[in-house]
Amino acid sequence: MIGEVEGLARVIDIIARRCWKGLAALRGEAPEPTREQLRAAFLHRPSRSVAPALRLRTARASADPKDIRDEDSYQAEFESYLSLVSWEEIVEAVRAFRKNPMTARDWEIYSRSVNLKASVQSRLHYGSAYDRLAELYDLNKSTVYEIVRRTPRCIAYMISTNPGQSCYRRRDVEGQITLPEF
After folding, report:
1. Local confidence pLDDT in tens for the 182 residues of the chain
2. 150: which residues sit within 8 A by CB, 6+ positions away?
3. Burial of 11 by CB count in 10 Å (0-12 exposed, 13-18 middle, 19+ buried)?
4. CA dihedral defined by 82, 87, 88, 91, rounded to 10 degrees?
5. Which of these, 150, 144, 115, lies nearest to 27 by C-alpha position?
6. Predicted local confidence at residue 181, as pLDDT
7. Among residues 162, 128, 159, which one has the least CA distance to residue 145?
8. What is the pLDDT of residue 49?
9. Is residue 167 packed enough to be buried (19+ CB in 10 Å), middle (13-18) or exposed (0-12)?
10. Angle (nearest 5°) at CA 110 between 119 and 35
11. What pLDDT shows up at residue 101?
């Protein structure tokens, strides 16, 4: 099993990307996802709230041995990390991350990346989500990628250490900001 911070970061990212209203739920603006919705998000399958035709397609594939491994992985990883913290702690950490002047822009970039990846706009005309975000925030693409990759980890780190503590540390007097290694 992966480390607590990394596992919790994966849970946060899956909720943001795959749960219906996942970002809103993490911000505390929508109800907490149900266990069925979380399971469907982890296994990347539609929950019962999705159209019956989609459920029928996934039901046919459920006899696959890979599904059993996925279900075991869900129980071992996802559920175990969710049991370490309360939903309120997750929401509190996300709110603190969003309100902190040093991390507010990172949350904005992360949430926009989730929304852009979920949209069905053509990549031929607009470029990738990272290209669009890099242009919007006047950053290079690799910086945007790093922010998107690290945001759930920072929130998980905040939850693991102290919900009010930022995951950023100053490296030098010039204001270079660095993150702890995860």
Report:
1. 458 899 899 999 999 998 989 999 999 999 999 988 888 888 876 544 444 444 444 444 444 444 445 666 666 677 888 888 999 999 999 999 999 999 999 999 999 999 886 665 545 556 788 888 999 999 999 999 999 999 999 999 999 886 445 555 443 444 444 445 54
2. 106, 179, 182
3. buried
4. 100
5. 115
6. 52
7. 128
8. 46
9. buried
10. 75
11. 93
What is the full DSSP assignment across the chain? ---HHHHHHHHHHHHHHHSTTHHHHHHTSSPPPPHHHHHHHHHT---TTS-HHHHHHHHHGGGSHHHHHHHHHIIIIIIHHHHHS-HHHHHHHHHHHHHSTTTHHHHHHHHHHHHHHHS---HHHH--HHHHHHHHHT--HHHHHHHHHHHHHHHHHHHHH-TTS-S-EE-STT--EE----
pLDDT at 4: 86
Closest CA to 73 of 10, 152, 1, 156: 1
Alpha-carbon distance of 165 to 82, in angstroms, equals: 20
d(CA 8, CA 5): 5
